[in-house]
Structure formats: C-alpha cells, structure tokens
C-alpha cells in the first residue's frame, strides 16, 4: 500500500489512479477497533487502533501526493457520480478515529474530532451542492454509497457529546437523520424500479445497515443513554436492513474483489456495537451473545478483506484506470 512506483511495464502511473474509495478501509478498521472496545477486548482494540492509524496515515499521504502531482485526477473523481460520495469517507475516518482515541487521550481525540467535524460539515455541503447543482445525475448513478455523507453526520455525536460538543452534535445528528430518510427513498426507488446494481457495487448494499445502527448509538449519546422508544425504532430498523442485505448475499458469489467490498465491514461493525450496547442497556443476554457473534463475523470479514486487498495490491489489480 506504500509503494506505487512507475514501472516500464505499466502504461500509466498507479499513483494517478489511487482511488478515494480506499478510505472505506479506514472506516472498517475503525469500526473493528470500536467493536473490540465495546466487547471489552482492550488489548486487541489498541492493536486495531494502531493498525487503523497506520493505514489512515499511509492512505492520506498517498492521496495528498496524488492531489499534488495529479490534481486533474482528483478533480475527475470529484466529478464522478459514484466516487464523489466517497470523499466524506476521509472525514468520517477522522471522526471514527477520534471516537477510538477518546479512551486513550481525550485531548488528542478532541483535536481530531474538531478536524473531522469541520471537514465533514464542509464535505457534506459540497457534495449536496454538487448533487443539486447544474450537472444532471441519472438514476443509474445512485447506489447505497450515496448514504456515506449522511452516515458521517450521525457518527459525529458518538464522540462529540462526551468531548464537550453537545449542541454541535445535535446539528450533525439532525442533518444526518434528515438526509438518511431522503436518500433512503431515492436508493430504494433505484433498487426496485431500475436496473440491478453493477457487480462491483453489490457489496455496497450492506451500507443500508449503517445509518440506523450508527444513529442508534448517536441517539444514546444525545439522550443520556436511555433505551427509549426512538432508540428501539432505530435498532429495529438496523435489523430490518440486515435481513434485507442478507437476502442479497448470494449475489456476492463469484464476484471479483474490488475496494467496494470494504463496504461490508463498517456496517457490520456498527450493528455489532449497537447490539452489544442494546444488550447492556436492556439488559438482554441474548443481544450480548448476538453482539459477540457479530464481532467474530466482523473479525473474519476484516481479516479476509485485508488479505484480499494486500493480494490485489501485490498483483497490481488496484490503482488501475477504469
């Protein structure tokens, strides 16, 4: 992941084609870190946090270098109707890292959270402005990846409230909830009434799980940890979308690996944490057990994705022109 040199046998520079969706991997690793912490596996959580920081630093360094050397390539990604939605994955990664850092260093977490929140607010407005601007989008351009900007907003309160930014967290939560509902209608319309998602976008169906699962965790932070009716509705919605995504799992068979497969990781992590939290508050041993099973599945998913990603990098299958 750290070396993308120009070589004689390649007609292009792989750095020029380093994709912004790569930051979805940081979201998945951050989710694993937080899930391990929620399950009480502190040593493993610290190790996962170290890996998350290392990967984020590598990806951020490479993408910054790409922006400096090939600004036209970054501009092309910004104009891309699908890749555009992945730019907020950078700011979401910062918010998730801040959440994971809070038990280690609250001051450091606060600085990272402020940076991530500012970037998330700016990117949300920029993406929304792009969506409703003068450039026409077609229904085929819509995918569950369009949820990413909305999910990022509901991530903010998970750490923001404890770090001393409750009012700002309410604003982010409100924005995320509103646009989740709007985008849910658009995405379901595309999935039901139009052509199926192309193969490499099929894994993004798992993203449907993330908004209600993360919103559940954010709502608990905002309402003082009370498992009220709205919290149960959000958790129930996450389970419904889990069931819906599971019915489409067979479509993954035989699909070649792509970075979009990382879309499986963060939603599973968010639901795992939500289930563990629900089990602790209910209290419900059954939910706690389900959460621990979810954690085992999450560990397997992330391990497999890491292996497949490293293998794809070694074979030169990533950072290729489309």
Automatic annotation (TrEMBL):
The keyword Protein transport is assigned to this record: no
What GO annotations for molecular function exist for this entry?
Answer: monoatomic cation efflux transmembrane transporter activity
Q: Which UniProt keywords apply?
A: Membrane, Transmembrane, Transmembrane helix
Q: Could you tell me the membrane topology recorded for this protein?
A: Multi-pass membrane protein
The answer to whether UniProt assigns keyword Transmembrane to this entry is yes
Q: Which Gene3D superfamilies match?
A: Voltage-dependent anion channel (1.50.10.150)
Cellular compartments annotated: Membrane
Any one GO cellular component localisation term in the record:
plasma membrane
Transmembrane portions of the chain: 20-40, 46-65, 85-105, 111-133, 145-165, 171-193, 205-223, 229-247, 259-280, 286-307
Q: What is this protein called?
A: C4-dicarboxylate ABC transporter
Origin species, per record, is Pseudoponticoccus marisrubri
């Amino acid at each position: 992941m750290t070396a993308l040199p120009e070589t004689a046998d390649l007609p292009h520079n792989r750095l020029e084609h380093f994709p912004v969706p790569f930051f979805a991997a940081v979201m998945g690793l951050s989710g694993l870190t937080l899930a391990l912490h929620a399950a009480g596996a502190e040593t493993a959580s610290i190790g996962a946090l170290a890996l998350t920081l290392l990967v984020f630093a590598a990806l951020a360094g490479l993408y910054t270098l790409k922006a400096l050397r090939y600004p036209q390539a970054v501009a092309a990604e910004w104009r891309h109707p699908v890749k555009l939605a992945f730019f907020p994955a950078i700011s979401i990664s910062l918010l998730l890292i801040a959440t994971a850092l809070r038990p280690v260093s609250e001051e450091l977490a606060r600085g990272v959270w402020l940076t991530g929140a500012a970037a998330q607010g700016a990117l949300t407005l920029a993406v929304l402005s792009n969506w409703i601007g003068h450039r026409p989008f077609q229904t085929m351009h819509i995918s569950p990846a369009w949820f990413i900007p909305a999910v990022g907003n509901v991530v903010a309160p998970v750490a923001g409230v404890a770090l001393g930014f409750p009012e700002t967290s309410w604003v982010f939560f409100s924005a995320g909830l509103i646009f989740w509902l709007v985008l849910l209608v658009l995405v379901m319309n595309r999935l039901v009434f139009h052509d199926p998602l192309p193969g490499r976008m099929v894994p993004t169906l798992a993203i449907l799980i993330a908004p209600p699962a993360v919103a559940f965790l954010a709502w608990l932070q905002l309402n003082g940890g009370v498992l009220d009716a709205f919290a149960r509705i959000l958790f129930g919605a996450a389970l419904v979308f889990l069931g819906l995504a599971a019915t489409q799992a067979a479509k993954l068979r035989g699909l070649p690996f792509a970075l979009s497969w990382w879309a499986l990781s963060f939603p599973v992590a968010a639901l795992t944490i939500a289930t563990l939290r629900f089990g602790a508050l209910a209290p419900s041993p059954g939910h706690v057990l389900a959460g621990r099973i979810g954690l085992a599945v999450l560990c397997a998913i992330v391990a497999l994705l890491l292996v497949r990603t490293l293998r794809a990098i070694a074979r030169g299958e990533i950072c290729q022109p489309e």
